Amino acid sequence: MSNKIYFTPGPSQLFYTFEEHLKKAIFNDIPSISHRSSAFIKVMQETTEALVELLELPEGYDIYFLNSANEAWDRIIQNLIQSSSHHFINGAFSKKFYDFATQHAKESTLSEVADGGTFSSWEVPEKAELIGVTKNETSVGHTFLEEELENLRHIYPDKLIALDIVSAAPSLPINFKNVDTAYFSVQKAFGMPSGLGVWIANKRCHEVAIKRAENSSLGSYRALPNLKRFGSKHQTPETPNMLFIYLLGQIAKDILQMGVKKMRNDTTYKAAILNQMVSNHSQLDHFVTSKEHRSKTTVVAKTEKSGEILRFFQKKGLILGDGYGVNKENHIRIANFPTHSKESIEMICDLMDKVE
Amino acid sequence: MSNKIYFTPGPSQLFYTFEEHLKKAIFNDIPSISHRSSAFIKVMQETTEALVELLELPEGYDIYFLNSANEAWDRIIQNLIQSSSHHFINGAFSKKFYDFATQHAKESTLSEVADGGTFSSWEVPEKAELIGVTKNETSVGHTFLEEELENLRHIYPDKLIALDIVSAAPSLPINFKNVDTAYFSVQKAFGMPSGLGVWIANKRCHEVAIKRAENSSLGSYRALPNLKRFGSKHQTPETPNMLFIYLLGQIAKDILQMGVKKMRNDTTYKAAILNQMVSNHSQLDHFVTSKEHRSKTTVVAKTEKSGEILRFFQKKGLILGDGYGVNKENHIRIANFPTHSKESIEMICDLMDKVE
Fold it and tell me: If DSSP codes are grouped into helix, strand and coil, which group holds residue B140?
């Protein structure tokens, strides 16, 4: 790695052990061995088991490897939605899942509030088979609360709930009992290069997919029953991104070794000092007004000096994120992922005072 | 890399400059930069241009980045086939494309001959909109001839032709004028880890997709018109496998530097000595009977001593491939990719004499 540090919300800074594991992977020929070999089956098993432990997945929740969170939207739509889904939207990524559903000719519906706003109505049309929720809306730094998720589960026990945990996993605790399916890409909080997605699906999802398969196409190699058939043998239908699956497992194990509780305490501490800094700074203001909904992993501030701030930090080799989409020039975004040390975040806070 | 050499037909030996480029990529933060940055747009452009030159693609043929050849089957089916395709099948991979089409509820048809056999009838039902052909059937070592492809094009000028060039590109010359769409994964002849697929589509494909989109869903982020919209700006709809796209470009440039003609001459020479060795060996016999249809990049021999041969070479750190599927224990497969030196292939031939 260069001597820069990336605080961008993804792609972001590589996990601090990434290079070491990469060297080991190449030395051990991980990219050259057969994806059907016992050596690779062991890799698949280790990565899966580390993720189950790290994410605290309950019994009956399976893990599958895709290539991105975008693909997870596609697979959820193909496998789990016959006619309609409902989406809670307050930013670009929650919106995109809805857009994908309509592109797949689903008659989906939405509850939309202004970007970064919080939801007050929990109404979901009866026809919706699945509810799409975004745990951490990376575009604006909004977090969907665990209580809100529990509330949705309570009101709609018969609908599937799909939770976007991109840039949330593994930093934020999630009660998966309130969720049927979830997904993330690895270039956010796991500190990996982009190109691998993880899809979690429980037994109810499998039942829905098998029922749908009776009179609909679920797609082909990544139809859920096919993923499960191979997954139960710690295999994949196709030749997967073997190298990244190995690396993800190693990083998950490192975080377990470091202690999930410590990692989450550190996340909370770093988020607190970043938010404090935004509150106190004359040129910055919180974008998400509701304090409890502010993201711990993606701190987003409104500012009229976005370009100036980014350049100031860039000169010091510290790469902060600009705003997403329409907010490109009015926001700064600062990622707070497991690889970002307390010291580096304290440095960001100290330096920010110098750009007033 | 370890001191083994992989002659498996993919995943296979990494390209000999792979590690050097990987180090450079990490040093230059390729996995951490934004996929919307000018730096990454430059990477996309360089990789695309190197591939266009290396594969000698005609004007009007575009390159898109997917995650595997399996995904390319899916995208071709979703974007280019309304009701039916026809598939020439003589091995496991040509068969799989047909299977994918039927899983997507297409009424597809096939011309099937025994594994490794050659085709004598070129009949294709009128209803077929697209013809699926496999340039190099990796499972059995059969090559579809350029004359056969030209013949198909001549008989069916109005149908789209999809050519599987997995383990063929860039080793075998292909006249893309006889083809509308083609695809490969990078863990074969490009000597990369698995997890990236390349999809080539010409103008006719775009016209078909745009027409289909009038009353059908083409999928979402990787609908062809969407790929083209982003691709025309050297971008992708989603965050792609940025690291592998960079590495593929570097390897393509290395092969161009070495000389495409030399690489192909070397391929022919190495294939000739491997085939000669199979012809002369008391324990080996060619699986593909038609001499001109024998693959140059995946030499496949029938043998009753498969396990013994593989173990003999493994002890010397030389990893040959076993047979595919039902032929697992009756075949050996030897990859002949650009990274396999003439000396290493000569060594295989010399050593094979010692296992008689």
Answer: coil
